[in-house]
Amino acid sequence: MDHAVLHTVDHARAVTRRYARTFYFASHVLPPAKRDAAYVVYAFCRYADNCTDEHREDTEHCADATQQLAELRAELDAVYAATPTPTRWVALRETVRQYGIPRAYFDDLLEGVAMDLTPRRFATWADLEIYCYRVASVVGLIMTHIFGATSTEALRHAARLGTAMQLTNILRDVGEDLRMGRVYLPQDELRAFGVSEAMLAAGVVTPELEALLRFQIARARELYADADQGIPMIPDDGSRISTRLMSGLYARILHGIERNRYDVLTRRAHVPLSMKLLIAGRLVGRSFVERAGSRSIRSTTTTPRPVVQAYPTGSRPHTS
């Protein structure tokens, strides 16, 4: 990437178009200001990820990537400085201020990408979930701030969507990651289903691997279902349908894995453009129906009903 143009929205748009085709496709229904803000955030996240991507198979240069991430943390100091401070991330500074995006999200992201600098195994789902939160859920939380849904419940659902999408990536890329010395699936679940790394390396879909993937796909779908409950909390200015589109397109990758008969070792599931357009058309139609229904209800309701708010238990995402 050209460091001299990292601050421009045009560059951020080009980065998003190149590296995040599904997100770029879904972003077109966003209002222009939110769309540009989303591109700016994605460009930073992509740059951070590239710092580690370049050295994932080159352990001798991991120190270089660690230094680059340390420099990014220092640059975040300038982005979030109370007084104007020179920085190449000018557009990012304007974005985080305009939308009130907490610094902690970016710190968590950098912690997550740093986890990829060395070959890693995750002992349990709880361990993997932390990784998913850092590299994916925080991006969803940032986008939710841009979209304008910052209630505790909305943020909780956004985090679940990020985890669902990252788990989908992991399932899609089992073979590719294995060739880079990485196995993201929890070790205890691999053992429970009788799947060894040697079996994965053989490149053959065994009944044991199929059973494991069925289990993981079911888990991902539960996460998507939970996340979908938060989508109505997002403003209906294009932000809501964009989120639905991202969720629907990523969830469709799971169908691709099934269609490939669970071969995630030699094949990479994807969503063809024709299917993306079909899903987008269905969601646009659904949005029109919901809007019409909402107008009908408002026109016939005379007595307001109390709103009951449910708060999730446990830790909450950063909100300020």
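^ that was protein a. below is b, sequence first then the tokens
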Amino acid sequence: MGATLDPELVAAVDAHVAQHAGLDRSAVIDEALRLWQEREQGAAMQRQIREDAKHYDDPERVAWRRIRDAAAARTFTRRR
């Protein structure tokens, strides 16, 4: 993969690499891309949760929650 980077970013990466033995440009860029991907996945999950929340009060979901709650009450109610 090839990419054109802002010269200031390249200088920052080079300065970081110079201060940390065992690192190279590729390792820094790999970590930056991992962090970007993690952020993107988090944003996608937040969008999905917001979208799901729009349907929380749908009548069918409400009915299923009532059925679930009744079943849980039967299951976990102590018998004497």
